Amino acid sequence: MVGGPGCGKSILALQALVEGARHWGEPAIFVAFEEAETQIHSNVARFEWDLPTLQKKKLFFLDAHLSSVTMQNGPFDLSGLLAGLSAKSKRMGAKRIVFDGLDILLSQLDDIVAERQEVQRIHEWLAESGLTGILTAKSDGETSSPSRRFGFLQYLADCVVSLNHRLVSGIAVRHLRILKYRGGSASTSELPMIISDRGVEIGYFEETLEYPASSKRVSTGIPALDNMLGGGYFRDTCTLVSGAPGSAKSTLAGAFAHAACRRGESTLYVSFDESGSQIVRNLRSVGLALGPHVRSGMLVMHSVCARSKSSEEHLVLIRSLIEKHHVRCLVVDPLSALPNATGDDEARTSIERIISYAKRSGITILATSLLANSDAVGESTAVGISTIADTWIHLSYNIQGGERNRALTIVKSRGMCHSNQVRELVLANSGITLTDVYTSGGDVLMGTLRWEKEERDREALIPERREAESARRALEVSITETTARIEELTRDLGGKATELKRLDSERLTDADSKTAHAGRIGGMRRFKGASPKKSPVRPGRVKRA
Amino acid sequence: MREVSAGSGHGTAAKAKLVLRLYVAGSAPNSAAALSNLRALLHSGTSNDEPVPFEVVNVLREAARAFEDGVIVTPTLVRLHPLPVLRIVGTLSDHDGVRLALGLEE
């Protein structure tokens, strides 16, 4: 393991032993040629390793640094040391061993031939003893290869790991690289590395982009915006809110956080610009009360200066907060602070990784991004964050008629149909709303102009309405009249029909009575001596008993 | 293995008594050289016949002791007395240098 001073070689080497002891119960020996044991203890005190406990049985520290009161007179070697270590490791059952700062010792030999001999000696000893050995040595300045003097170490070793620590845009950034790995394949790219509470952590890219896509939605916190998006943001997606300074990006972020807390979902608000209490106060002015949620712990505010650490360190910090609070919704405001502070490349990989991690964990993200110009068309946000985001909302200003009004547009929204209209964003004490932007004669009007135009149009409508009203009334009247007439006519009709029936039935009875009368007359004539043959009485009509 | 060997000569002890201990790795080349060098320089150094005893510790046999005493490389010569404790590593090929360091007279 090679690296410049302060790269973390000793820490990483010791971590290998500690993890081996803690997780696999493998005892180990740490031979310290460079630092004293107490120094090492204080170096690693902040990690959760609990060295003293381990030292009781699993970890043996050998303080092997030659003190200053040592003189050298003639060549020396490590044979005694190795013999002693053999005995110790056998007794302990040690599986791993670290020779930390070997180059210090070797340089004391001051004789290239002797140095090589000793390294060879160690190499053979390791092979014989069956221990896994880690050697740490300094490298030349900032280059990642070991110094020329100890270059042969690299040839003998089966695996060479190089650490470096350099400045990127004025911020210290660490990297690790596997230079050589005999007998296996290993990624040889440079990986970002940080030193956290747990020790050394490497930022490794997951190779797959596969994660489940949810079709559930979460509220944006603004009902009108929910409608525009067909329900809200998709769960486990990343939404980007971009815009010029002061265009209410943080307000949108706050609304999202507020809605999440109301749903009972643990939320983390990471701010690179303002303190937590400032944000809470600002949002209260639009009717969003975040205070209670902060107090209850549902909302965790994390305000940190972007330049205070490398983006990789920010990432690890955010990740540990997410895990600690089981966060379901994440706000990063503004995400663009990271590349601005730490350099585009570094930030981009860190950002991609945190978003990928969050999506995999089912977390919905809202990130804001500051744009230097307020033109929504055709720009790409710094570092191309817009390609990572699933939904992109852009806030801009519309300056017209002496006023500055806010406009909101949905630039893109993967997986959902969304309104393509530009809406006016209105912030009031009662809350945040989106109003329809007034389009009139090709002009987009907002704010006061919109009200004026709406008023004018309303007024223009009034005479029309009045006309319509009176026409309506007239029609109503005529309808009533016509209906009345129809009734009358119907009655008439009814009367006439009745009349007709009556006449018809009268005629029938007349006919009946005439026939009856004729029959009676006929009957009477017969009685009076009329011949029966001449009887006009029709048979079957009138029967005489 | 403890071995006490005396340098030649005895006489009045005007100086403080010198207590030396040599740690060797068995009969490894450097260690063997140191042993013979030490004997030689102690012999030639003392003109007033003062015995300069030194103890030899074989770290191959007494590894734990070596670690406890803070001996890492071999051979190592430790001057336990007079204080301060002095350590010299190496084959001790430079006799004059060793004698100077130990405070022995020429």
Would you write up a description of this structure?
The complex is a heterodimer of chains A (about 550) and B (about 110). Chain A has about 550 residues and is α/β, with parallel strands linked by helices. Helix content of chain A is about 45%, strand content about 25%. Chain A contains 16 helices and 23 strands. In chain A, strand 18 and strand 19 form a beta hairpin. In chain A, helix 9 packs across helix 10 (about 275-285) and helix 12 (about 310-325) runs parallel beside helix 14. Chain A is elongated. Chain B contains 3 helices and 5 strands. In chain B, a hairpin with a 4-residue loop joins strand 4 and strand 5. Chain B starts with a strand and ends with a helix. Mean pLDDT of chain B is about 75; it is low at about 1-15. Chains A and B meet through strand 4 and helix 4 of A and helix 1, helix 2, strand 5 and helix 3 of B. Strand 4 of chain A pairs parallel with strand 5 of chain B.
